[in-house]
Structures are given as structure tokens and as C-alpha cells.
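Deliverable D4.2, example record:
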Amino acid sequence: MSTATSTATSAPTSPAPLTGAETLVETLKRVGVEHIFGLPGGCILPLYDALYETPGLRHILVRHEQGAGHAAQGYAAATGKVGVCMATSGPGATNLVTPLADANMDSIPIVAITANVPSAAMGSDAFQEADIRSITMPVTKHSFLVTDPNQIEATIASAFHLAASGRPGPVLVDVSKDALTALVTGDAPLQLALPGYHPRTTAAPEAVSDAVDLMLKAQRPVLYVGGGTVRSGAHQEVLEFAEITGIPVVTTLMARGAFPDSHPQHMGMPGMHGTVTAVAALQRSDLIISLGARFDDRVTGARDSFAPHAQVIHADIDPAEIGKNRVTAVGLVGDAKETIRQLVNEFAARKAAGETYDYSDFVERCNIMRERYPLGFDEPEDGSLSPQYVIQRLGEIVGSEAIYTSGVGQHQMWASQFIKYEQPNKWINSGGLGTMGYAVPAAMGAKVACPDDVVWAVDGDGCFQMTNQELATCAVEGIPIKVAIINNAALGMVRQWQTLFYSERYSSSQLPSMQVPDFVTLAEAYGCVGLRCDNPEDVDATIARAMEINDRPVVVDFRVHQDAMVWPMVPAGTSNDAIQYARDLAPNFGDDE
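Output generated by the structure prediction step:
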């Protein structure tokens, strides 16, 4: 019996259509996402099902959605990449509002993905329904609502483009549950049309020429360097610009590390708790060259008395910032990296052509001021532990290669003052919004982004109790951050203001001196190593012990003197001329030697 061999081939089969959730996951992979911080719930379960065992995407289960948002911020701030967080509808989504607002103030590129109730139920007050698109519109670059599965891919891709381009910032994409479960049919654009979105990256050449004209005529110029230089990766350009001009440099709280602290032209951080030299340099300047800074009220003090004799060159990628808080002589709209490169080239060409300038007298006076009023602190008379000493030794022992995050308050200011920053993306904090509880989840995100870097969260005992549950995430997920709690048994900055301005009436600013909870025991309950230090002689050994532990998170409870204050200080709402070097000492801004 013979057999016949068939040579017919079956027709190729089309790939099975994807659901909206599957399409969303594939789009995340296409735009380069590797890590997601999130917490599931009912409406977003289809997306979590699509994520199940998806290769190339690591989902990190947080203990609170706010932690997911701050972790995404820390991830983005450490790398410049877009951070990603996810939450379900209703309270899951609203718990992301604080990190979205924080990222918006500090120009941090993150994309938040939330799920909402089925589109047919929207507006009916369905279980866990919230109009998160409307809620977050004021605190994001843009918020999208997607109810058509065919629009998911283009919307997600557009969200990443918006977050990372122009002035970076947060974007929210809210997807209805039925769009996640429905099949994607037909062809859809890979990115939405954004006809009104055209961020300018290059400053106008005539404006650059005008800016250099002002620089060559000035006698007391200052480079006022802001966080925009960090976001654009412009630190090398800032260094070259400073060195080719010889102009003194100040770096804002958000720009620490954009210009090396060790550089002789660096005059420190300006503002409410800035150095006397930085504040004086701005106040006495005749020209401020603002690079990616926004003339925040914490820098200017009372604006009508800020730098009264200075003209302003303002370089910023966001045209809305030019002239918003300070009248501007020359506006340079463009990316900081490219704009500074343009300024360097123009200045160098004019210098080579023989045009002259002389800033030497002003530079000398700034140097005298820096020597006369260095940052410092008094040791407690009772021999207890100084918080400034702890942070100073932390920076000296750990070094400038580490990443430091902070919460908000006294410890934040001390960490910005007493740790030396030599390169960008090593100092991560909540600047514009001032969010307590930022440090631990931001450190978690930074450590995920940079697993080979040492990451320290410098936190206060008040801040730490807002988001310390993310230590459980760190322990379970193998994210060995280190936490230094500056524990003064008080809400330190609130207490400082009550001491200075409210006759020592400590209303609701004291925390239990008997320490509830016990931070060492709490750390161990979370699967971390807990250490305690309350003696100056033990500080170095305690930090060294923490540095030796790299397989688990470490929490160090530094019990410090309660009455330490952050100096210098410009009282809120007053002129920068009112800066106090210490409680009973106001510096002399005069022209004497």
C-alpha cells in the first residue's frame, strides 16, 4: 500500500489580537521601561494579569501608592529616565496626587498609570470611582483618560514623550477597565498628534548675543544655577561656562552637584538657609545669569528687595518661567545644555576678539565673605550628639560617589549644607513641594535605578514615620538602602520656627521622647538591620558598621540634641539682607575688607 506525501502548506495565521492591557504592557516595553512601582486593585487587575511573568519588566510591589510615586521620582532623578508607577482606581489613584504634584514642582519625568471604573459606570459614583484625570490636571504636564483600547498604545507613547521632553514632568494616563479588557482592533497611530507641543531647545542667537553684551559690561555678575541644569545634564557646560568667565557660582537646593562644591568659584547655596556668601553675592550683584532656576521665594526672600541693583539674564526651557517672578532683561528660551553651550561659544568668540571685562574686585570680595562666614555649627554644651556632626561625618565617610535622598525639614537643610556634592544626580530631595516622607521611597527608587551605588536616605523622625512601610518593600525585594534617622524627638523645623517666632510655644511639634515606636525594633520587624547611636564617639563606627551591611536595608537611629537649629536663616517674608548667621549674629554685607 502506497502513501502519498502532502506538499500543501497551511496559510499563515495572523497573530491573535491583544487586549488593551496586553497592548499597554507591550508599549511599556517598547518605550524602554524596565521597572514599575505599583500596587494592584480591582480595576487595574487586567493590567496586572498582563504583567504576570512578563519578561523584561520588573514590578515592585509597594506598601502604599504614595511610595510608588516617590520611588518613581527617585528612579527618574537618579538616572534621567522616566520613572513609572501604577495604581488602581479611586483611593489608589488619589494616593498618587502628592508625588505627582511633587514631580511637577521639581520637573521630574514620571508616568503614572491608573485604572478607572468601566466607562459605562463613569459618573455614577461607582465603587472606587474618582475623576483622577481632572484631579491631577493642575499638578501634571498633562493627564489623559483612555476609554478606547485602540488609543492605548498611542497615548502611552505620547505620555512618555511629554514626560521626558521640554521641561520634564509628570504625566498621568487613566484607562477605563473595559478598555483594558477589550481587544485592540484595527490600526492605530503609534503616537498622538500633539500640534501645540513644540518645546524650543535652542535659544535665539540674537538673545545670546544680547546676554553676552550684558555680561561684558557687568562688574558684579553671578551665575545662579538651578535644577534645570541637572535635568538637562548640563553640568559639564556649567563648569566650562564658569571657568571661561570666572564668574562666581551659586547652586540652588535642586542644583546641588551641578557645579562641584570643591571648585574655588562655588559660593554655596542661596536662599533661606543658604550660605552667607551666596546670599550676599546675589544681593550685591549687578547681573544675575539664571540657568534653569525659577526665582523661587525661598531663594529671593521678599522679592521687592531681592538683588535690587541686578539686571537678569534668564535661561529656561519653559517660556512661562521667563519674567514670571523677576523682570528679565534678556530671556533665553531653550534647553539648558544647548543654551549654555551657545553662551560659552559666544563669550569665547568675543573674548578672542579682544573684548575685555573685569570681575576681579567682586570675586575678591566674595572670597573674603566666604572666609569670614563659613558654614559651621556649635557642639551641644551637654555633650549630646550634634545632628550637623552626624551628617557631616556621614558625607565624609561615605563620600561624594554615593546617592543621598532626604525628607523635608532641618535634616534636609543640614544634608544640603554639610554633605559635599561633586557631581549631579547624587542629591535627591523634595524642593518645591516640600513633601515629608519623601526620603525612604525615593531612596528605594534610586537604588533600583543604580544598584551598584550606595544610597543613603537622610530622614527625620517625623518624616520617617510617614512612609517607613516601604522598608518592607526594600527588604522583600532585595533593595538594600541605608537610612540615617536624625532623631530629635520633634518636628524639627516646626519647633525651630516656634522657638524663634512663637515664644517657644511648642504646639503639636513634640514627638515622644520615650520613642514610640522604637526605630531599631521597627527596622528589625521589617526585616532590616537596626542600629542606634547617641554618642559622638560612636558616630564613625556606627556609619562604618552600616556600610558593611549590603544584603539588607539598614536603619540607623541617631538620637541627637533637640535644640539644634539650621543657620544661616532668612526669616520667611523678609529681605535677604536680614539673613542671620547665627541666632544673635547678622553678617556685615558692607564693602569693608
